[in-house]
Amino acid sequence: MSFMRRYWTQVHNWVGVLITPPLAIIFFTGIVLFFHDALYQWEFGRQGQLTLPQAMDQAANRLEQQGILKEGGSLSFYPAEEGGFPLMYYGGKGYQAILADGTVLKDAIRGNAGRTLLNIHDSLSLPMGLYLAGLVAVLMLVLLINGLVVHWPNLKRQFQQYRPDSAKDKWLDLHKLVGIASLPYLLMYAITGAAFCLLVLYQALLLMGPYQGDRSALMNDMGFAQVPQAAKVAAAQLPPSALLAQSQALLGAQPNRLTIGPWKDQNQQVIATSSRGRELVETREIIFTPGAKAPLSDIRQDNMDPSRLIYGAFVALHYGHFGGITLIWLFSALGIACLGMLFGGALRAHGRLPKSGWLYHYNRKSLVLAGSLPLGTLALLLAARYLPMDSPARFWAFPWVFWVVTLLPVLWPMAVGTGRRRVACLWWTGGLFALASLGSIALKQGPELWAWALALVAGTLVLGAGAALLTRRLSPPAS
Q1: What is the distance between the alpha carbons of residues 377 and 127, in angstroms, rounded to a whole number?
Q2: Has residue 16 been placed in a domain?
Q3: In what order do the strands lie in the sheet with 104-105?
Q4: Are 243 and 258 in contact (CB under 8 A)?
Q5: Is residue 138 part of a domain?
Q6: Burial (CB count <10 Å: 0-12, 13-18, 19+), residue 212
Q7: At residue 82, does pLDDT exceed 80?
Q8: Is residue 271 part of a domain?
Q9: DSSP string, 30-61
Q10: Separation between Cα atoms, residue 457 and residue 439, nearest integer Å
Q11: Staple 281 to which of 312, 351, 456, 458, CB 3.0 to 4.6 Å?
């Protein structure tokens, strides 16, 4: 091996070991979040007593009575795609929600397991964590390019190579095989993940450059349409239910976002978006005035500005918004395969790192952390489903529930260097418990959660097999 390839190999190994823990967390939570609609139904689904139009009108009346929604303000609704509930809305003072049984949630963002998982996925729930996740995505891109450079001379042979009888080489072969097979998927997530996490930096550069500080113009071009300035001339206000019906007629679909503003003002416009499901950038956005028979603007993929088209394509690729549930199943399977790739690479590194070094202990704890992710996620979802909706714990406990359960096997008893067999058993049985519970959820909540449960089955089988091997390898020799 040449000096340059040896150097690149060392960089690949070191950086790979360092970013495997956050990358495993990001991948796993991302797979779970593919099924966000089913998660919302699991957490917020209640026996229906209100229709969506009734809930929207009640929300507007309540916000006006509380003095939160005033003339000249704006009101945004975010109906869930399945059945319209929970109905999230924003009236200028935090996000609230109305459930189908009329229950009002005063803090629908912090008291939300799906949002908690999204924060963990985006920023690992850390201050400035968004930039850390962006750095991890950039390093992931470096690793992919670096891995291609290292393995390029023997790429074809190594892609076809798998040595199951060699304890030393089978994890390396698995790592390379999955890495090469899923390379387009990995590159897409490295690029789009870095773009989203570091978006604030790009926006700052654009505001200092071509947009000259005009944030509204920048947000409009990126696809976040802004309501017009208030004319301060009073006008009759149609109820949100009527504007919902108008948007449904103009879009030919249920909107997933409806923004009304300025409230009770002559300049009022309504911005409605929906998913079309036939193109890469599925989003269709219309802007119309109340009572009009035609929209003022109708933005689709074929007439979008380039900046919005690129951003929309990144969103569609990253979240799997195009192609329906079949594409989400495919992305979930690829994500589980990539978790196996990370696991294989970490096991291979474990056999080559000096046992006296900090990197060896860091890598060992990373393996346990990756295996405990299903149990932490399950604990979070069960807490979300069964904690009372008005419980103060919903507003502060969710991240702690996830991190305590996930990190517990790492902090005890691995931190003191004993109980390795107990850790692996906890890992394995925790995964089985998670699967059994998720299976019961899927039986009650419909077919979409089956894809999630099946993906977790495949992933946990891989992690369980690795746990057994890790137990055997790390157990101290008999005296």
Answers
A1: 21
A2: yes
A3: 104-105, 95-98, 87-90, 75-79, 257-261, 269-275, 283-288, 297-299
A4: yes
A5: yes
A6: exposed
A7: no
A8: no
A9: HHHHTTHHHHHHHHH-----S-HHHHHHHHHH
A10: 10
A11: 312
pLDDT at 479: 43
State the chain's mean pLDDT as an integer. 80
Res 447 pLDDT > 60: no
Q: Which letter does DSSP use for residue 268 in this model?
A: -
pLDDT in tens, 296-353: 999 888 888 887 888 888 888 898 878 777 888 888 888 888 888 888 888 777 777 7
What percent of the chain clears pLDDT 70, i.e. is strictly above it? Answer: 79
Top-confidence residue, 108 or 249: 249
- The Cα 291–Cα 245 span in angstroms is 10
CA angle 365, 357, 403 (to 5 degrees): 20
- Residue 131 structure tokens: 């930039």
What is the number of H-type helices and E-type strands within the chain? 17, 8
Question: What b/e string do you get for 20-55 counting C-beta neighbours within 10 Å, with b at 16 or more?
Answer: bbbbbbbbbbbbbbbbbebbbbbbbbeeeebebbeb
**How is residue 454 written in tokens?**
């099946």
pLDDT tens-place string over residues 112-164: 888 889 999 999 888 888 889 999 999 999 888 887 777 766 666 665 565 66
Query: Pairing between strand 95-98 and 87-90?
Result: antiparallel
Domain count, the chain: 1
CA distance 270 to 238: 11
198 three-class SS: coil
Structural domain of 459: 3-40+116-196+323-474
Which range, 17-26, 343-352, 415-424, has the best average confidence (pLDDT)? Answer: 17-26
Residue 417: inside a domain, yes or no?
yes
Q: Tell me whether residue 357 is exposed, middle or buried, using C-beta atoms within 10 angstroms of its C-beta: 0 to 12, 13 to 18, 19 or more.
A: exposed
